[in-house]
Amino acid sequence: MIDHICLAVSDYARSKVFFTSALAPLDITLVVEVDGWAGFGRGGKPEFWFGTHSHPQYALHVAFAAESRAQVDAFHAAALKAGAQDNGAPGIREIYHPHYYGAFVIGPDGHNIEAVCHRPDA
């Protein structure tokens, strides 16, 4: 349903290091950099973008799809190592549905970044 999303960030270099580290376990990589914007994605298609802006958005929630619960765990660990603040350790969130396995962190600009796996057997 969504083709891509863009975030304004306060520090491009810091955000690039953070997202490169945090998204690597999900097989999401830097695809392109254009005019001060970084585009991350899978299979060569940039779907998640960020760039420096004097007024970054706050309190956005971005959830990245994980193929397994192990990827969710690895995302959380990598994000914390890259400087994120824990906002919900990996685990089942039955409030959403019985197989919703997610982890949440607060990134460098205060955005709530999540990885989620919906598969019951992953």
Descriptive report:
This protein is α/β, with parallel strands linked by helices. It has one domain (5-117): 2,3-Dihydroxybiphenyl 1,2-Dioxygenase, domain 1 (Roll). It is built from 2 helices and 8 strands; from the N terminus they run βαββββαβββ. The chain has a 4-stranded mixed β-sheet, with helices on one face. Helix 1 runs antiparallel to helix 2 (69-81). The chain is globular. It starts with a strand and ends in a 5-residue tail after the last strand.
In short:
With 122 residues, the protein is an alpha/beta fold. It has two helices and eight strands. It has a single domain, classed as 2,3-Dihydroxybiphenyl 1,2-Dioxygenase, domain 1 (Roll), CATH 3.10.180.10.
Question: What class do helices, strands and sheet pairing give?
Answer: alpha/beta
**Percent of residues in beta strands:** 35-45%
Number of helices: 2
**Succession of helices and strands:** EHEEEEHEEE
- Into how many domains do the coordinates divide? 1
Strand order in the sheet with the most strands: 1-4-3-2
Task: Assign the CATH architecture.
Answer: Roll
**Would you report the number of β strands?**
8
Q: Shape from CA axes?
A: globular
The average pLDDT is 94
CATH homology-level superfamily: 2,3-Dihydroxybiphenyl 1,2-Dioxygenase, domain 1
Helical residue percent?
10-25%
CATH topology: 2,3-Dihydroxybiphenyl 1,2-Dioxygenase, domain 1
Oligomer: single chain
Summarize the biggest pleated sheet. 4 strands, mixed
Q: How big is the Rg?
A: 14 Å
Q: State the CATH class.
A: Alpha Beta
